[in-house]
Amino acid sequence: MAERSEETLMEKISEKFRGSDSSDSDDDKSKLKPSQSSLKSKINRLFGRERPVHSVLGGGKPADIFLWKDKKASAAVLGGATAIWVLFELMECHLLSLVCHFLIFSLAALFLWSNAATFINKSPPQIPQLSIPEDLAVNIALSLRFEINRSLAVLKEIASGRELKKFLAVIAGLWLLSLIGSSCSFLTLLYAVIVLVHTVPFVYEKYEDKIDFYWEKAVIEIKKQYAVFDAKVLSKIPKGPSKDKKH
């Protein structure tokens, strides 16, 4: 009896130790989980992004197309852009000639079909009434006007001489754009933009953590080099009159 009681006591003690070990391991796991999540939250997202890529791109159908959520629509847009680029750049077709030939073929087919329908005792085809809605035209014009005015306001602010960083960034961007424009046509540039829009967001969303990690390291190095450049060059350039200057 004494041996059995000792065995039961030893079993109870071992069970208690196992329970405490399991609870300690659970506590350790619970402590590790927030630390891992905090590490993920500490990663500086690209361009200070705090929202998902889908919402940054505007959400809805366009974001689904850019991120290949709707594969059929994405393939259709990219395939159509590729066909237009091949047609006008590689085959060197002219837009005006192509539009005229398309209209000639369409009008001739509809005209012949309408006249042939009278001989075979069938009703002629109903051609739909095509027109641009007034609300759509007004909204497009207002949006275009707003964007143009905002761009002009930004250019005016940059030309005032108060924002040296923006001035240098805009000059570098325009110079780079002029180099690209001199080496390729506008249609090729537009096609390259469409291809980039359909590939870069998709790749970034797939390898988001890795790209953000290397981006953060690159930003730190760029800030170091800019601090040196600012101390040696930019700080010695005279600045324009400040906006808050009292007369």
TrEMBL record:
Spans annotated as Disordered: 1-38
Coarse class of the protein's main subcellular location: endoplasmic reticulum
Gene Ontology biological-process annotations: response to bacterium
Transmembrane segments: 94-113, 167-197
Its membrane topology: Multi-pass membrane protein
GO cellular component: endoplasmic reticulum membrane
Cell compartment(s), UniProt: Endoplasmic reticulum membrane
Record keywords: Endoplasmic reticulum, Membrane, Transmembrane, Transmembrane helix
Coiled-coil residue spans: none
Basic and acidic residues bias locations: 1-21
Domain Reticulon: 62-247
Pfam families attached to this UniProt entry: Reticulon
Protein name in the entry: Reticulon-like protein
Species of provenance: Platanthera zijinensis
